[in-house]
């Protein structure tokens, strides 16, 4: 019979000791062992025995499952995900060896993960530099900085997912994840009551924390999904500040605006993690075959909130279908772009008029499906639909936008939208006209970079621009 693998928990033990404000000598005295043995445990030079786990749990009144953790499974999954990067394709990296490194050398593993994240962030920064406005390349762009931060991490933050699940469990016990249940949790945990006030009284705010009156004030024009989301957002700001700061610490921001914009994105991620807890939501997504509307009804969220959450299901070891998310207005301006798979059009894509996301305004609230193909042959499956922000009363301003949710063609069979639908002939689209080299595209608005225009003295093509083939 195979023996159980020894458990090494040095970093977790060190973190526990520091959180308790203890020295190695203090912990050794509490556990009735030597300080040198504590040092060996923290350096992973000794495994943590079952007896030692019991001592820790009894001494510090902790749940043993919290102490035992996952035996390095999460770190192993994260490292394996990073080592799938094409830059490592020519290196033999056995799965067992990766697991040994993650378990036995957690410090080195964390260092590698941080280096890879920093590398990807720098790669995205180089791709952004002067891509659209070379003359403004030196000026800080907070939106680009925030997108780069999220993109480098594939819009996945397990720390927030775990914290969100714990808060969701507490809210469920207090009354559920509806607006009423979240309000009950705020009252019980922070002594904050929730008040809904008329739009004119809120003076342009949809949510405001009033510390003087111990209240969370909400615009009464908000619908049910928006009300619950704003309450979850307030809970995230109250409960996860340290988590936000820990994540932002590794970011690269030229100014405070980029940092604040990213912090806001993390808070929205956390609010979604509360309303749609990772484990339950991921399971439901598979069961319902990624039916966005059905999931929205199950979790009491909006179509856009649900589609947004689907892009975050990339927790190491528990990954689901990787999606790309895009939101545009009727003028074609991209107001949100999220990516969980490193899609090629995640940086500057979205302006190709052949993509159905730009035609969704012609058929409001209807889900449009489309097979897509980029110039390099990569194929994708896309759904698009309009969503409304604002409104809630006569004369209250509102705006219509369209969102697209897109996955690689290889995952399309998992989506209910592709059931019984033949891939057929995909629509040829480009990342942007400046980066697309399709010579026969009638919808082109600009010639591609690096191609010479042809003279029109003797011949004029049907396409807006004629350019050399080579």
From TrEMBL:
Gene Ontology cellular component?
A: cytosol
Could you give a GO molecular-function term held by this entry?
DNA-binding transcription factor activity
Q: Which UniProt keywords apply?
A: DNA-binding, Transcription, Transcription regulation
Pfam name, any one = ScfRs
HTH cro/C1-type domain residues? 13-67
Q: Which Gene3D superfamilies match?
A: lambda repressor-like DNA-binding domains
Question: By its UniProt entry, which SUPFAM superfamilies does this protein fall under?
Answer: lambda repressor-like DNA-binding domains
Q: Which family does it belong to?
A: Belongs to the short-chain fatty acyl-CoA assimilation regulator (ScfR) family.
What is the name of this protein? XRE family transcriptional regulator
Which species is this UniProt entry from?
A: Sphingobium chungbukense
